[in-house]
Amino acid sequence: MPSEQRLPVGSPQPHSSLPPRPSRTDPYLERYAARARGMVASEIRALFAVAARPEVVSLAGGMPYIPALPLDAVGEMAGQLVADRGAVALQYGSGQGDPGLREGICDVMSLEGIRAHPDEIVVTVGSQQALDLLTRIFVDPGDVVLAEGPSYVGALGTFASYEANVVHVPMDDHGLIPEALAETIGRLAAAGRQPKFLYTCPSFHNPAGVTLDQPRRAAVLDVCQRAGLPVIEDNPYGLLGFDGEPSRALRADDPDGVIYLGTFSKTIAPGLRVGWALAPAGVRDKLVLAAESAVLCHSSLAQLMVREYLASQPWREQVKVFRELYRERRDTMLDALHAAMPAGCRWTSPGGGFYVWLGLPPGIDAKAMLPRAIAGRVAYVPGTGFYAGQGGRDHLRLSYCFPEPSRIREGVRRLAEVITAEVDLWSTFGSPAQAESGAPAQAEFGSPAQAEFGSPAQAEFSAPAQADSVQ
Ligand SMILES: Cc1ncc(COP(=O)(O)O)c(C=O)c1O
Description:
alpha/beta, four-stranded antiparallel beta sheet, globular, disordered N terminus, binds pyridoxal-5'-phosphate
C-alpha cells in the first residue's frame, strides 16, 4: 500500500470520521465516464521524451518539413490579411466553414478526380477532427468498425475513445486486400455483426507506405457497395506521390458511399489545423451540428489564411517542392536500408507520403527493442501502436519526412546495428517473442482481425500530440 492517502476534491479534512480512501495518483479516477477507459497513454511515451533529445536521430515522428515553405511570403500574406480583413478573420465564423475556402477545396480535390460542390464540404480542425466527429455520429459503444491492419494511430485512438471494436483487414504491398475485406464482412455477418464503416487510407498509407492500386480500388468499392458499408477515405498524402499523377480517389467513383477526408497539414502546414470532410447531405448536416457542439466554429483566421494561400501563392509549385524533398529523403532511406539492414528484415517501398514499414527478423520484438534503440540514439515507432489488440510486434514504422538526408543515413545505420545486436542476442539466448507465441514472426503485415469482438480498441498512442508527435 502506498503511504500517501488522498481524498477527493471537496471531501472533509483527514481528521473527519470518513474512512480513508485508497490512494490514487488521479483522485478523479472513479468519476470518469466509461469511454475514458479507452484513452490510455502508452508506456513508451516516456521514451519519446528522451527521443526528442538532439543526439537521438528520430525516425519516429510524422512531421512535415515546414522549413521548405516560403515562410517570409506566408508571413507577409498573413500580416496583410489581418490588416485588410481582420474584422472578419478575427471574428466567429460558420460551423460549416468559410464558403470561399470550400470553393478552393473543390479545386484541390479535382486533382484526384473528385467533382464536388462547396456545400458538400465541412471544414474541420485537421482531418483528425473529421475522424472524431464521424465516429461520434456513427459509433455506439461496442460497434464494429473495419480498418486496415496496420492503421493510422490517431484513428485508432479516436475509435478507442468512442469504445468501438476495431476489426483489422489485412493488406499487402498493393494495399487493402478486397477478398479479405469480403471475407471479414461475411464472417462478421455470420456472427450477427454489421460494421458501421470501413476506415481506409488508400494512398501512401500511414504507417505501411503502400498504395491501393487502381483495380483494387474498384474491387474495394464493389465489396462495400454490395455490403451497404460506408467507406471513410482518409487521404492526407494523396498529392504527395513521387511518380506520375495522383491516384483517382475512391470518392470520385462513389459519391454516395464514400466520405472523403482531406487536410492541408501535409501540403501547407499542420499548424494551421485546417482539414475537411466531403460527405453526402445527411452526413454533412450531422457533421455541422457535431462540429458546432465541439468548437462552435473553426478558426476564421486559419481558414482565411488557407483561402488566401490557395488564391495568391503558387501552391501547386509548392506541393512539387515538397514532393521532390520527400522523394530525395525516401531514396536516401531505401538506399540506407539496403546497405545496412541485416538478413531477415524486409520493408515497403513507398511511392509517396512519409513512411516505410519495416518487418523484423523472426523473433525480434520492436517494442521490447525500443529502449535499446534509444540508448543507441535512434528512435522509431513500434508496430504495436498501429493495431487495436496485439498485432504489430514484429514491425516498426520509419519516417523520412523530417530528418535531413545525412541524419536519415546515420539513423538507419544505428538502427541496423541495434537490430543486428538483437538478432545476435536472441540467436544465443532465444527470443521472448518466440517463447511467448511458439511461432515465428508474422508475415509482412501482421495477422488479420485480431481485435475481433474483443474489448474496445486500445491504441498505443491514443493520447494527443506528443513532443515528437507520432501521427
Ligand atoms: C492517415 C492520417 N490521417 C489523418 C491525420 C491527421 O492529420 P491532420 O489532423 O493534421 O489533418 C494524419 C496525420 O498524420 C494521418 O497520417
